[in-house]
Description:
Blueprint: H1 5-21, E1 32-37, H2 50-64, E2 77-79, E3 85-90, H3 92-99, E4 106-109, E5 112-115, H4 119-128, H5 132-136, E6 144-149, E7 190-195, H6 224-233, E8 237-242, E9 245-250, E10 258-263, E11 265-266, E12 269-271, H7 272-285, E13 289-292, E14 294-295, H8 308-318, E15 322-326, E16 345-350, E17 354-362, E18 367-371, E19 373-374, E20 385-389, H9 400-404, H10 413-416, E21 420-424, H11 432-441, E22 446-450, E23 460-462, E24 465-469, H12 471-483, E25 488-491, E26 495-498, E27 505-506, E28 525-528, E29 532-535, E30 554-557, H13 560-577, H14 583-592, E31 605-606, H15 614-617, H16 624-627, E32 632-633, H17 638-648, H18 652-659, H19 673-679, E33 685-690, E34 696-704, E35 710-717, E36 722-727, E37 730-733, E38 739-748, E39 757-766, E40 771-780
Parallel strand pairs: 6-10, 6-13, 7-10, 13-15, 15-16, 16-28, 19-23, 20-21, 21-22, 22-24, 27-31, 33-40
Antiparallel strand pairs: 1-3, 1-4, 2-3, 5-12, 5-14, 8-9, 11-12, 17-18, 17-25, 17-26, 20-25, 29-30, 32-34, 34-38, 35-37, 35-39, 36-38, 39-40
Amino acid sequence: MVNTGRFVILVLAYRFLVPLLSAEPDHTTTRESYVVYMGSPSGGGGGGGLEVMQADHLQMLSSIVPGDEQGRVALTQSYHHAFEGFAAALTEEEAAALSGHERVVSVFKDRALQLHTTRSWDFLEVQSGLRSGRLGRRASGDVIIGIIDTGVWPESPSFDDAGMREVPARWRGVCMEGPDFNKSSCNKKLIGARYYSVQPESASNSNTPRAVAATGSPRDTVGHGTHTASTAAGAEVADADFYGLARGAAKGGAPASRVAVYRACSLGGCSSSAVLKAVDDAVADGVDVISISIGMSSAFQSDFLSDPIALGALHAHQRGVLVVCSGGNDGPNPYTVVNSAPWLLTVAASSIDRSFQSTIALGNGAVVKGVAINFSNQSLSGGQYPLVFGAQAAARYAPVAEASNCYPGSLDAQKVAGKIVVCVSTDPMVSRRVKKLVAEGSGARGLVLINDAEKDVPFVAGGFALSQVGTDAGAQILEYINSTKDPTAVILPTEDVKDFKPAPVVASFSARGPGMTESILKPDLMAPGVSILAATIPSADTDDVPPGRKPSAYAIKSGTSMACPHVAGAAAFVKSAHPGWTPSMIRSALMTTATTMNNLGKPLASSTGAAATGHDMGAGEMSPLRALSPGLVFDTTTHDYLNFLCYYGYKEQIVRKVSGDARFSCPAGAPSPDLIASGVNYPSISVPRLRRGRPATVTRTAINVGATNATYAAAVEAPPGVTVRVSPDRLVFSSRWTTARYEVSFDVAAGAGVSKGYAHGAVTWSDGAHSVRTPFAVNVL
């Protein structure tokens, strides 16, 4: 969800600052949970089964723990399916000693990771321009989606298995029980459930907070996991709504698919060791697609071999499992996208063609349209309320600037009580929720928030009257307040507006590229992530429940967390039609068929109105129906990813341990960021440095998955001042599954006044029936 980033930053700040403030901390006795990653099981692991491997790992631990402390030698997690390793409570010195072990690839702290919808799927179908009836019947129920999140509420009708066939025989997972979760909680839709407990030793002698993870049961106590699982593969539920709003048939992207949930998170976040264990288990259980709406804060990203999601996903790809991840909510600034390893499908968030309008009727008869989700009892027939600007209601000794921002403690309750207060947002440290609580706590009857930021993401205010407007409308309201002695207003309950235009739009919060390496264009793809209605737990967000109403079984949430399962569901849909396709072929099909136009027929834009680039939206808004028949695909192999690690700078012996192949050799010329762009067969292109007179050339290999005897011609969208050439400019395929290789060269045009920085464009291959678009970004130096 949105707005979890500040919590994680505070936790991390606490983690770094407290040891500095403590008096002479003893690092020899302070123990924290660490993950010890050892690469593929075949890369020199213990072998001989789980018991032998665990005994081997315990022996490794014993070798670095003092003799008088051998009683604390224990594994808190064991990784032994897709990759080898373990988690354990270690001192800093013990972790350093293990990192030097010949069989160990990396050792890193068990960090806390952050938790990063009805109409959305219908909107995607309309945008595709195709009819789903015939294509939808091709979907089978044999695809399994693994959801790593906060668990599941199994009683939700979104997980009803009516009409579903028997569970696929290849499923090897379990339905773990707990005090509030039985084996009967699983069915033919929700076929598996696991949970992971927090390591009790991880911080027993530490000054730092414990990593937060789920305990006791697969049951969701947050609502986040239930929401994402039902978005990806929920059964169709008629007349779902959020207290009357967004009413319609709620369904997942792959309603015929199965769901397996892995509860590795709680409200406070996720233990990275538990997330890594969940990936390992999901691969062994037999899932086809993994959806992870989790990630690090963009301010604290680590390298790829110390990133638990990246590590697990690389080995998942080796086993034929596609991992889809949220790109994060730290936008709209550049360099904020997370989960940007090339073997991940990284998802940005967009709006759909629905808006939640909360109208403000002023005492002078003017009507101002705002945005929010509120269920207040104010109405035009109930009369008007006095209207006051926060700066005019400042408490004694409170700065006017703080009062105008609804800063905690800044408002005089006697001047605010019974009135609608107007506040601005010049202080980004005070969130919308805090402003709402300040106004409500001061006795206000409503809040008008003037703020252009996040206006595309309606705030859920429950029974409190709230509406958010932009600066232009806000100026109109303030002018009215200053024009009369007794200004009044009323905030009307929210109405949902369908067929809203323009849509989609890149969400303001959606994290932007470039990613960890500028040689891979990230994010990959965009999907609905604003105001998404999906299943939740009955007790979630009780503060948002209107007075006298029972908690809703469905909730409206926003974030790249909501966009991620849309893509996971679409990937499962494509997998059901093409069971033999590799994870990267499915990703390629989704990317090359994505749309870059909105429902006005104009190029997609960001929330600011500026044209969206590849760093905002990746290849564009996904179009699942078009992805069923992409024409050409780009298969990025595990060998490509191992070469990427070489190009990125990892030593050959490290990459061998990761791969499990003792004969693997890094390519000549590694490391080199330029070789990444050319040597990884990716369905997009990113050139990290381009200088005039020094052209950059990138190679790609396409596979024909369309008709026989097909000929594709290239068309180039070149940005001003950049020369782009494709050679050859025609690809001829005599049959299906044949390949063709081509080159794309980039240069700064002679005499051109091209601006420095990133320029964006695309190469599109077409045979008359298919359009295969590969976006590119080039950084002109």
